[in-house]
Specification:
- It is a single chain.
- This protein has 277 residues and is of the alpha+beta class.
- It has a domain of 167 residues: 2-Layer Sandwich (60s Ribosomal Protein L30, Chain: A), CATH 3.30.1330.
- Strands 1-2-5-3-4 form a five-stranded mixed β-sheet.
- Strand 3, helix 6 and strand 4 form a beta-alpha-beta unit.
- Helix 5 packs across helix 6.
Amino acid sequence: MRQKLHLTHRVSHERWLVSYADFVTLLFAFFVVLFASGRADQIKQRSVSHAIDSAFQSLGLFTTNPRKAGGANLDPDAKTGANIAIGEEVLAAAEVRADLEHLEGQMKDLLADKLADRTIAIHMDRDGLVISLREAGFFASGSAIPKAEAVPTVQRIAEALGQSGYDLRIEGHTDNVPIHSAEFDSNWDLSAARATRVARIFLSLGTIEPARISVAGYGEFHPVATNNTAEGRAQNRRVDVVVIPRSNLNLTAALPGINNSAPGKPSQWHRITDGEQ
């Protein structure tokens, strides 16, 4: 006689462990993916940092290794922050230069007649946009008083620049021929007096705040041409109206290629208050 097998079926109360294990496994995989992504982002960040570092060094913006600045190594985050700050400065300089180039075009259209007769020259310098008023068209020899027929031109320049919002530095320059007259003891005095007279015309219109204007007298020491010829000396006798961005923007370093017409000229400017002449 065969024996009958009796199978007893029991309901398991631990099946939830299977689902729980699957959930834990998926959660673990999720965090592994997050961790890997975070590591990849750090690697990408370092790569971008190194690329920016190399680009800025090629432009000459770093005179020393930024990782060794101050005698200590910068961590990647600090270096990246420094590069971003310099990058923003480069972009700011690019925007300012583009705006100054637009202003340069406007001024050339406005002063086309004076550019044609070579009594005015306009160019970009490392400090900004330079409008040169040459002595032949604006001053009598040895005099600081602008010619009467030249005043309307100075007023046109002042009105146009008054709308730009930039600061203005008015510089007086001479040739190297010594001067000693009843009015001026040296080329320093003559250059400063001429710049001050032009500044007075600018201020007389009331369209430019006095705080936006500075006056400088450079005498014979920042020529744009040789003093060995009459033509070169004529170019050096001038008053430059310099349209400048804020003083800590280095347009030359950030954007190579700007014409530097006065090699001996300091890259940073100083506000000079000239006395009454």
